[in-house]
Amino acid sequence: MGCNVAIAGVTGAVGQEFLKILEQRHFPFSSLKVLASSRSAGKKIEFKGKEYIVEELTKNSFDRIDIALFSAGGDRSKEFAPIAAKAGTVVVDNSSAFRMDTSVPLVVPEINPEKIAEHKGIIANPNCSTIIGIVPVWPLHKANPVKRMVVSTYQAASGAGTSAMLELENQSREILAGKAPTINAFPYQIAFNCFSHNSALGANGYNQEEMKMVNETRKIFDCPDIAITCTCVRIPVMRAHCESINLEFKDPITAEQVRDLLSTAPGVSVLDDRKNNRFPMPIDATDKDNILVGRIRQDESIPENRGINLWVAGDQLRKGAALNAVQIAEKLI
Question: Is the entire prediction scored with pTM above 0.85?
């Protein structure tokens, strides 16, 4: 016997990944309710050999539901997650709606699983770039406090949903056929191009994605003083984000020590083959649970061996979104 589970936003890229991961990890559920917007209601979804009918997400969707995995967008989360929580459901929310709410735990199970017990009906899943960047940084920070992080991201189309992934594919076909690319999901051509992350710019000149990484990392690490600066970029890759991470530590640390710490860190795999110049690529991380780490080297511009450079790759739909939420749900039961 398991719990009664609902998935809100089941027809989207993360919703579909929820189903895949629940099956792969043999998540113990008694019943499953699949929810989406009114335009998807009535669609049929096959899961573990059984057919489910997609129902419209409404305020009455959560009767006798124990855990709801939300990936239906921030507005729907704001509207329906409090209703679900009031009905006795624990919501694991994938949107940005509640991440910085001081009463809502923001959880990465490899980092702060103890926060799950503090929930009041809603637990927030961090931003994909945040998760992918900080899973490998955390074990280093525990061993030797990180004073400053400089992060540049190389973000896949999947972060903007199924329509963006299809747009990358379609534009590639169009351009190779000599046609002008059709631009809908993104503000600019994504195929054979890259551009600054398409989230809104703040008054400080940083976009929302960059500020999410700053603020969420501080909250998850419970370290408001850590200095973080980010530049987030979209690249023409389907579903795995990469990040260049420069770390300045309180005390000296060598690349060998970092490699040793990461070799046993949960949720991390080291792929650091200097001899063959072989390091993590998006295709390596696709469909993998772990964050891949390579290019581990001393930052020689920081004195006293207190600087390290890393290159990471992680599947945006898995650990960056659906897997992290399912891991939280597993700890709830």
Answer: yes
